[in-house]
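Input for the complex:
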Amino acid sequence: DAGVIQSPRHEVTEMGQEVTLRCKPISGHDYLFWYRQTMMRGLELLIYFNNNVPIDDSGMPEDRFSAKMPNASFSTLKIQPSEPRDSAVYFCASSLAAEGNTEAFFGQGTRLTVV
Amino acid sequence: KNQVEQSPQSLIILEGKNCTLQCNYTVSPFSNLRWYKQDTGRGPVSLTIMTFSENTKSNGRYTATLDADTKQSSLHITASQLSDSASYICVVSARGYQKVTFGIGTKLQVIP
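Predicted:
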């Protein structure tokens, strides 16, 4: 398996534009997580899915953020409209289970810059 | 409030030397603690995962310890190599994965 695949790797957009980040989890993993990483706050969990169903989106900062998982092999994180403070690295991760002795596998991340 | 604090924030050591990174947490009820290594421009990669009953776990030159009573963990790196230069992130999960709490990380630089 190629691991968790995210696209694009880099995204530069103007304030107010819609941004869509994409993620393909590892096949067979039932859990998918979206994280945001900044220098000041480190990694923050935004939302996670179990079997394509959103379980907890309490980390999503505002209504401008939305995430979907239409099937087991694809998820999107959308920001509309984008703002400069959304600039960060967004990671997607997947795992076999939610807790216990399991490992979450991270993608390479999407570096988003909103100007 | 669940918190994970790591120290030091950054560290520079000579190649071949040992070092120890610290993680203190106030996460309850505790489920597990993980140490991740994050190379620049890459996603984090798990080094060790420990549950309540485990107090030490090794992964090559990396050894993690856990004291659930004092709520402290450490990551010891033996005979450091240039490739150890990275950020090391401590992550603590409470029961129910949505309550995972991340430390800011320790940025380690190994120099020749």
